[in-house]
Design goal:
This protein is of the alpha/beta class. The protein has three domains: 168 residues, Beta Barrel (Lyase, Ornithine Decarboxylase, Chain A, domain 1); 232 residues, Alanine racemase (TIM Barrel); 45 residues, no CATH class. Strands 1, 13, 14, 15, 16, 17, 18, 19 and 20 form a nine-stranded mixed sheet that branches. It has an eight-stranded parallel beta barrel with strand order 2-3-4-5-6-8-9-12, surrounded by five helices. α3 packs parallel to α11. The C terminus is likely disordered. The structure holds pyridoxal-5'-phosphate. Pyridoxal-5'-phosphate binds next to loops.
Amino acid sequence: MTPTVAPTLPPEIDPLVRAFLDAPGALADVLTRFGSPAHLVFPQVFTANLARFRAVLDARVSGYRICYAHKVNQSRAFVREAERAGIAIDVASPEELASARGAGFDAARIEVTGPKGEGFLRDLVDTGVTVNVDNLWELRRVAELAGDSTRVPVLVRLSGFPATPISRFGIPLSQADAALDALAAQRDRIALRGFAFHIDSGETVERVRAVEACLALTERAYGLGLTPSVLDIGGGFRQVFTADGDAFDRYVLALREALLGRGEPMTWGGNTFGFHLEGGAVHGTPVFHKYANTVPATRMLDDLLGAGLAAHGGRSVAQVTAENLLDIWLEPGKALVDHAGITVARVEFVKDVGEGITLVNLDVSRDTVTPADQEVMVDPVLLPAARGDEQPVGVFLAGRLCLERDLVTNHKVWLPRRPVPGDVVVFPNTAAYHMDLSAATASMHPRVPKLAVTQGPDGFQVCRDGDYEPAAAVAAYRGA
Ligand SMILES: Cc1ncc(COP(=O)(O)O)c(C=O)c1O
């Protein structure tokens, strides 16, 4: 059963990725060489994203530092690309730190965020990396562990801003006095670089409140004779997954109707995606809201830098930080790898399990393509493309694990034709958290390999992610 117009979730696809998918034989060649499934990363898309960020910052502020948030993807290629581009890196574990070091980052370009624990702190204090402290215990412990001759560079992460959801991270504003006391008392051992926050929200106003709080504390720190020189605005800049916000809305509308029993069923196993049904109506906010975003990360950044600050006579964030000689640091993760990765799987078999219920079984499991088990609300690309005389078909994509719950999609996906074994399914835009965050080796399946794809004068080159070297690839690309 197909609705008159099949509801779709059209993906935004970067032109370079599109060119790769369209290049005759390019993807087939990769699958022949490396097998299926595979994660493909595109370092040149990373570089282009970075250039857009830099353009916004260059236009607005004089001093800034971009720290690539490594946690978004374990890819070595992205880390190498970041190193070559001359930016800094934000690491959140000893393993990420080792990865950054291995890719060539020196201590001066490394910032360590997140909660750390005794062992990690001990390893950090003498290295010269900037420690972005998460809590008062860390702040005091850094001072205790620091040798008499070293001053540990520290950023103090704050949270608990007015009208902002509670966070498990950062020092709540209510404990700011204790933080300032510790910073002042330990000035011989701690070099305060500045105050930091990270808010995972699309709301500029939330970040503006955080900026105001950080600036107020910066003033108080000056009053204590401390010399902070950084305002760290964190990451959280959004991705754009959808190529068509209206189509996304139409899909969600059809889904709501389906939940009310109107039209064809669109969810697997009674899943309601955070909606609840009451009084014959659908209520609530769906859990996949972020996939509907149409505001690019660079606009979010520009809006924040241009936002007026009430406590500073309406002058903008960019102006006030410049007047106070504060450098802006930011830690984008997902925004830097937006569209810089795809995940490729093969159709194993197609199975009809009931009226209008078709399962397309893939050689990946759900954890291969979802960030922390979230539903991925963007249509995959089916290859080879439909000939044009076929009918769209609504299907659920099923995973390879022998587990009832291993559905790659719990929502119905309309593909342009009925797939057959051996077809290729491409999941777009998976570089940010989708590839690694939930990745498991359940049923003893090996981890999905990661490959780096670059475009050069002779077409596309592909190598294992761990073997990628940016200089060679960029030289080839520039020569095009
Ligand atoms: C402190 C900090 N900075 C930066 C990031 C990166 O966030 P995003 O990938 O949303 O830009 C995170 C993500 O959790 C974080 O905790």
